[in-house]
Amino acid sequence: MNHISSSLLILEEKFIPPKSNHSIERSLERGRGICSSKIRNKLGRGHRDKVHQFVAITGASEDVALKALKASEWHLEAAFDVFYSQPQLRSKTDNRRLEELYNRYRDPYADMITADGITYLCNDLMVDPQDIVMLVLSWHMKAATMCEYSKQEFISGLQSLGIDSLEKFRDRIPYMCNELKDEHKFHEIYNFAFAWAKEKGQKSLALDTAIGMWQLLFDERKWPLIEHWCQFLQVRHNKAISRDTWSQLLEFVRNVDPQLSNYDSEGAWPYLIDEFVEYLLENGVVQRG
Q1: At CA 21, angle to CA 19 and CA 23, rounded to 5?
Q2: pLDDT attached to residue 38
Q3: What pLDDT score was predicted for residue 276?
Q4: Which of 76, 94, 132, 223 reaches 20 to 30 Å from 245, CA-CA?
Q5: Nearest to 57 by CA among 211, 186, 170
């Protein structure tokens, strides 16, 4: 190496700073972006549409969308489950923003969110307080009581959904509504609703409350006998509903044809369901086989 080259090398080392870690990270991000772009361009139109839908609903990056969709064999609903069940895929929530959201809705006289705060939240979300999505949200929060969220329930529930802003909250609503279409999740939400809706300290669910919850839940499942069931309860039962009756009705709905063609009178159904079958037959709603 000649004298001039050596001098230039010394000057370069002395005056040109090395790339910082941030510069290296930005370079890597650009590299990943180029790779993602190449992968995306190789996708068919149907797969690209699913990536766009996933990103729009979850707010995740395209890299995360690709991982979740590939892991679920390109089933969009299953990809949402992968995303929300694996914390490492979700963007981290900002604790400060979560505190701000909680304080926005908390009761001024108690360290919890009460009915007024929930109404305010629904107004912000542009959701009817009677919408079933509020039941799904309460299920995510593991809320102990209807129309109340403790600070722990509210913040933990939002963290599990990857929510720390109203914008993200609104974006998650379609996902929460779609969860009701999943048989396993519907079963879990249905069973959760009993304890959530009953009065504190009570073992049974008030009849009017139970009827309202059944109408809400089975409006999603389109059980054709729901109105007959509610009328039967008001005419023949007129008492609070036990957990056993609550649980067994879902099994009846899932396993017995609305025409009762496969109903087994010798089966281990609660007496109230057996009486309901007799009521249907007596009133000609269904015909004896």
Answers
A1: 55
A2: 52
A3: 95
A4: 132
A5: 170
Are 133 and 178 within 8 A, CB to CB? no
Q: Which residues of the chain have pLDDT under 70?
A: 1-41, 59, 86-92, 288-289
Residue with tokens 């991000």: 29
Q: Are strands 112-113 and 149-150 parallel, antiparallel or unpaired?
A: antiparallel
Place of tokens 């995740």: 60
Provide the β-strand partners of residue 112. 150
The whole-number pLDDT of residue 41 equals 60
For 283, other C-beta atoms within 10 Å of its C-beta total: 11
> Running DSSP on this structure, what letter comes out for residue 236?
I
SS3 content of the chain, % helix, strand, coil (to 5): 65, 0, 30
Closest CA to 169 of 138, 124, 132, 119: 124
Specify the DSSP element, H or E, that contains 113.
Answer: strand 112-113
The secondary structure of residue 90, as a DSSP letter, is S
Structure tokens at 24: 């290296």
CB atoms within 10 A of CB 143: 22
Cα angle: 264, vertex 265, 271; to 5 degrees: 125
Residue with tokens 């939400």: 189
Of all helices (H) and strands (E), which one includes residue 272?
Answer: helix 271-282
What's the rounded Cα separation, in Å, for the pair 143 and 164? 18
Residue 39 has a pLDDT of: 53
